[in-house]
């Protein structure tokens, strides 16, 4: 099923909804004429109409009858209200419902909709904004491979997409959803290091940014383990081993791993399970 021929409704036009619509339009995955958005306030609708040049509504019941794919991009706390709205306004049972809400289970969504719509749960992250997102997807009980194809078309337009079982979604939220924030902190700290040894701040940050991009690309393109790549730059008696040992003294590995563990636990408490 080609997304290019379908009508897409994006409910929630905040950080993620806006970024996804923008990515889909910029990559010409969809024609702006086939997309509409919904938000809670008229101000957000106005912004979307002006900047993305698509239709946007606070009351979208009329759009539901002929919309093929609904992308739910509201906060977990608004999911119940939105799902009740979809149910009471009789969405067709063929409409594909894709939710990016953290912590909201497929079972919860299917139970409120109360009819056999195909449902897909997805967890993207904010680098979708620059086309470098990481999205994990999982099919619900009535989602067919053709529905998953549509989800792949959406999320591959803004980065990489991977299928995993729903049991892993809290982990994915803690690692991939929160992951960019960890790297912003690490980058800030490394840039502080550069400033400490005399580099102008903007130069230090520019260097760090390219180093992080370069290191990630090395792992991605060579397919080698980070430990092997690290060994390559660790000359005996050199400066890199000195820096690495200081990091190990600060327990950097367990600190980072435990951060993912903590975020995963919190993700599990965010939304509605069922
Ligand atoms: N931000 C991330 O890093 C990230 C990553 C992965 C997944 N997510 C998930 O993405 C979802 C959205 O997050 P976000 O950061 O984009 O949130 P956000 O910026 O707060 O945007 C939420 C949007 O939902 C709209 N909305 C609220 N209630 C509504 C309703 N009843 N009907 C229609 N629209 C409604 C809001 O409208 P107004 O603008 O008018 O208030 C707003 O446009 C969340 O479930 C989150 O778990 C976020």
Explain the layout of strands and helices.
Elements: E1 8-11, H1 15-26, E2 35-38, H2 42-52, E3 55-57, H3 61-64, E4 69-72, H4 79-88, E5 96-99, H5 106-113, E6 119-123, E7 133-139, H6 145-156, E8 159-163, H7 169-177, H8 179-196, H9 201-222, H10 226-232, H11 239-249, H12 252-270
Parallel strand pairs: 1-2, 1-4, 2-3, 4-5, 5-6, 7-8
Antiparallel strand pairs: 6-7
The structure holds NADP nicotinamide-adenine-dinucleotide phosphate.
Please give a structural write-up.
The protein has 274 residues and is α/β, with parallel strands linked by helices. The protein has two domains: 3-169, Rossmann fold (3-Layer(aba) Sandwich), CATH 3.40.50; 179-270, Orthogonal Bundle (ProC C-terminal domain-like fold). The chain is built from twelve helices and eight strands. It has helices at 15-26, 42-52, 61-64, 79-88, 106-113, 145-156, 169-177, 179-196, 201-222, 226-232, 239-249, 252-270, and strands at 8-11, 35-38, 55-57, 69-72, 96-99, 119-123, 133-139, 159-163. An eight-stranded mixed sheet has the order 3-2-1-4-5-6-7-8, with helices on both faces. β4 (69-72), α4 (79-88) and β5 (96-99) form a beta-alpha-beta unit. α7 (169-177) packs across α12 and α8 (179-196) packs across α9 (201-222). The two termini are 30 Å apart. The structure holds NADP nicotinamide-adenine-dinucleotide phosphate.
Give keywords.
274 residues, alpha/beta, Rossmann fold, ProC C-terminal domain-like fold, 2 domains
Gist?
With 274 residues, the protein is of the alpha/beta class. Helices cover 52% and strands 13% of the residues. The structure holds NADP nicotinamide-adenine-dinucleotide phosphate.
């Amino acid at each position: 099923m080609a997304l290019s021929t379908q009508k897409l409704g994006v409910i929630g036009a905040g950080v993620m909804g806006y970024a996804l619509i923008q990515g889909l339009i910029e990559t010409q995955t969809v024609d702006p004429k086939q997309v509409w958005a919904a938000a809670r306030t008229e101000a957000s609708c106005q912004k979307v109409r002006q900047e993305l040049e698509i239709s946007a509504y606070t009351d979208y019941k009329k759009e539901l009858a002929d919309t093929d794919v609904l992308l739910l991009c509201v906060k977990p706390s608004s999911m119940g209200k939105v799902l009740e709205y979809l149910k009471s306004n009789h969405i067709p049972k063929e409409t594909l419902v894709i939710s990016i809400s953290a912590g909201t289970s497929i079972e919860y969504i299917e139970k409120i909709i109360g009819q056999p719509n195909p449902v897909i749960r997805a967890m993207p992250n904010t680098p979708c904004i620059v086309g470098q997102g990481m999205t994990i997807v999982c099919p619900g009980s009535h989602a067919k491979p053709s529905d998953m194809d549509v989800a792949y078309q959406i999320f591959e337009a803004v980065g990489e997409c991977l299928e995993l079982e729903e049991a892993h979604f809290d982990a994915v939220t803690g690692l991939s959803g929160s992951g960019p924030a960890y790297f912003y902190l690490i980058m800030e700290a490394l840039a502080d290091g550069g400033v400490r040894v005399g580099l102008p701040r903007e130069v230090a940050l520019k260097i760090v940014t390219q180093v992080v991009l370069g290191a990630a690309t090395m792992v991605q393109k060579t397919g080698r383990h980070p430990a092997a790549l690290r060994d390559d730059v660790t000359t005996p008696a050199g400066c890199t081993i000195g820096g690495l040992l200081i990091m190990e003294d600060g327990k950097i590995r367990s600190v980072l791993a435990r951060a993912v563990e903590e975020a995963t636990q919190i993700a599990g408490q965010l939304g509605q399970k069922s």
